[in-house]
Each structure stands twice: as structure tokens, then as C-alpha cells.
Amino acid sequence: MSNESNPVADVSEDLSNGGQGTTPAPKISVSKDTRRRVVTASFIGNFVEWFDYAVYGYLAGIISTVFFPESDRQTALLATFGVFAISFFVRPIGGFIWGHIGDRIGRKQALSLSILLMSVATFCIALIPGYATIGVMAPILLLLVRVVQGFSAAGEYAGASAFLVEYAPAHRRGLYAAVVPASTAAGLLLGSLLAALLTSVMSAEQLNEWGWRLPFLLAAPMGLIGRYIRTKLEDTPAFRELAETDHAVKAPAFAMFRTYRKQLVIATGAVLLNAVGFYVILSYMPTYLSEELGFGAAESFLATTIALASYIGFIFLTGIASDRFGRKKMLIIAAVLFSVLTVPAFMLLDSGSFAVIVFVQILLGGMLTLNDGTLPSFLAELFPTKVRYTGFAVSFNLSNALFGGTAPFMATLLIGMTHNQLAPGWYLVAASLVSLIAVLFAAETSRKPLQQD
Known about the structure:
Layout: H1 7-15, H2 32-58, H3 60-67, H4 73-86, H5 91-104, H6 107-125, H7 131-134, H8 137-167, H9 173-177, H10 179-201, H11 204-209, H12 214-217, H13 219-231, H14 237-244, H15 252-259, H16 261-292, H17 297-325, H18 327-349, H19 354-372, H20 375-382, H21 388-404, H22 407-418, H23 423-440
Helix pairs in contact: 1-2, 2-6, 2-8, 2-10, 2-13, 3-4, 4-22, 5-6, 5-8, 5-21, 6-8, 6-13, 8-20, 8-21, 10-17, 16-17, 16-19, 16-21, 16-22, 16-23, 17-18, 17-19, 18-19, 18-23, 20-21
């Protein structure tokens, strides 16, 4: 693929030319080739992590019939999404541990280990027998593996964002950090494509018996490739300077709570729209379309696939816009748009038209990029180098644990309780309002030097 059609190559080539910004030049020089490899490694590693993590959500309908006893459809789905949500509760713990490793030992070490854990856990899902074979042990083993996945994912998004921001030219930190949500969406895109392919070429019996296991088997080779690339990189200039001057703190979490409590609260609130929006729009939507609105599984996956492809393109434009106009302004615009347009968009989904569904998903995905393309650089800039990984990881994972991982479960539960198919839309509106309030209390971060101490 040529650089003209490859977003990773575009960012890497465009941003490897240095930058004139407010951040003083680092003592450790960074070559053009090094920046290119950093962008590529961050994209591939995060892509692998979120492909592994997302496949479960896309195949939730099938997994519910394999790992849980026969019951009514909604109860089985709630059980499946319940396992999805429970695995998120370990993420704040993972945020503290990965943050400690990343701020104390190095970003590189944390990222290399997290991708290995994720790949092994995902591969194991493919090997677990179903409920018909081993009974209640099937959902128990599934839950244990999902907990390992959740623990691993806790260090990935924050670590990759910090890694890119600390390598980026000062005036391009937003665009560099946009690689993280773009790679996340690319992982989702591959998962959606595989799910659409499997549901198109296989019968329901084949999918339930063995077909659903195929995407999980890809985790091992993909994870080994991602880990290998990451081990070939040096740690960021900002962290190496911190380590060389012996300013790395021994207990980053204590330092964060002692000095940066306000930033932590703001960050946790700002993440809420990303947490709910990401999992409702990009992960739960195929299940919503097929289970609640009655669309075919292949049609639902195809619509989400088209929306994901457009999302990846929009995300880089948002990164550029956040560098030009500021992080705070972009986050406010995203929250306001979701507050006003989400429920009308969900009303259009019930039109019965495939073209309308694709349009609505592209619209919602484009709105989400205004938040997602800005958030990684905003959170990384909010905390100083010595607690950057910890502050980002704890706030991001706390909000995702409470509201992101539970979003598919809450959407399904709210529909069941209210008998209103617009319930997920109203839930997303509530999340956007909380994020709006948090961002209003934040200071602009894009035009300030990265804090060291």
C-alpha cells in the first residue's frame, strides 16, 4: 500500500520533519526514522490489542448461545454482556499497575508486556469448550480469560498515547496521538469484517459449533508480531531524561493523588463520552441492529464496517483540528453535538432503510471522532511526565470500567426495563452532559509545554 493511502505512513511521513512549538527542544534528539517506527509500532500494537478485545463484542450473540444455558434471548445476551462488563472492573486496578510500571520502569516495558498478555488471553477463548460440553465451567473460564484481557487493555491505550505524545513535535501532538484511536478503530474494523464474512459464508450451525472461534485464533501470531516490533524501540525522550536525572517517582499513584487530584477528576469526567460512545456506537451497534431492530446479522456488520472505515479517516482530521484550535474547544463541540443529535439519530435507525442506517452510523462515528481524536493528547498533556502514564491510565480505565464496559449491558437492560428502543441514545446523552461539565473546568493544554515534574 502506498503512503498516499496509508494513514500510518501519512502521519509518520508528515510529522517526522520536526516542529516549532512551545515545548523546549528535548536533550535527546529524535530522528525522522525513529518517529516513523514509533508511529508504526504504536498503530500495530494498539490495533492488535483492540482487535482481540472487540471480537468478543461483535460475536456476543453467538457467544451467548455457546457459553450460557438455554434461556430467553435477552437473558442470554445480558449474561454475555455481563461478562463483558465484569472484565472492565479489573481495569482500574490494571491502570494503577501499568501506570506504575510505565512511570517507574518505562513506557516500552509496559507496552511490550501488555500486548503479550492480551494475545494469550484472547487465544485461550478459542480453546474453551462450550456450556453443552463442560457446563458451568464454560462461563467461569470465559470470565477468567476476559478478566485477563481487561487487565491487559488497562495499560494499552494510555501507554500508547503517552508514548506518541512524548515523541511528537510540539505542534503536532494532537495528530500523533490520534494514531491511537485510529488503530483502535482499525482493530474493530478487522473484527467487523471477519464477523460479516463469517456470518455471510457460514450457516448458523457452523458458526455456533466452530466458526466463531476463528477470529480468536488469530490473536497469537498477531500478538507476537506486535510485541516484536515494540521491543525494537527505545523509550521516549521525555522518560529517558526523567530517568537520567533520577526524577522518576518511586510511587507514581501516591504522587498523583497528592498533587494532581483536580486533573484526575477532570480527566475521569472527560473520558465518559468516549467510554459510553465508543462501546455503544462502534461495538454494541451490530447487536442493537440485529437483536432490537430486526436487521440481518450480515447487514448489521456491514453497516458498522462502513462507519468504522469513515471513522478512521475522520480521526486524523480531528487530530489536526485539535492542534490548530485547541483540545478544550474540540471536546466541548463533541459533547454539545451528542447532547442534541443522539436521540434523533437513534430514531432514524428504525427507518428500515439500510442507507439511512449507514448514514446515521457515519454521523455518530464522525461526532465521536471529535472527542476520540482529541482525548488522547488532552489526557497526556494534563499530567506531567513523572505521573503521565498513571494519571492517564487510572482516569481512562476508571471511567471505562464504570460506564464503558457496562454500556452494552446497560443499553440492553434499559431497553428491557423501559421497552423503549431509544434508551441507548438517552444513555449516551447523559454521558455527553457529564463530559461537557468536566471539560468546562479544564484548562487548555495544547499550546503549553509538556510538564516534566
